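Suppose a colleague, Dr. K., hands you the sequence of a protein chain of 123 amino acids and asks what its three-dimensional shape might be. Before reaching for any lab equipment, you can write down a predicted structure in token form. Begin with the sequence itself:
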Amino acid sequence: MKFLLVDDDSVHLLILRKIFEKSNHEVIVAQNGKEALQHLEIDPYFHLILTDIIMPVMDGLEFLEHLRESPQTSKIPTIGITAGDVEYFRKKSKYKFESLVPKPLDFYELYDLAQTTAKHHIN
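The predicted structure, expressed as tokens, is then:
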């Protein structure tokens, strides 16, 4: 499967990338929503996007808006992660994430959630 990981925390990206690649998944990383959109312009075919909410340049909520409003990316399942108030971001978001997960993270649980969500949307 192919995953897009979006987070301004390079340590989180490194750990997640290693976990996904260990299972032979293709992984593309971006430091913010704007950078992620640039990747999607080149190749919009991902099984799942995992994005942080609080990021510079373009945050995860604005990124999700762009995803859902584009016919090419509107159906890509997206999981949000945040160190902020999960309920606040659920209410604030114009669009819904498949899941919104609080930090600190159990990276392996997040990986399992991502795999399950992606497989569910493939079938």
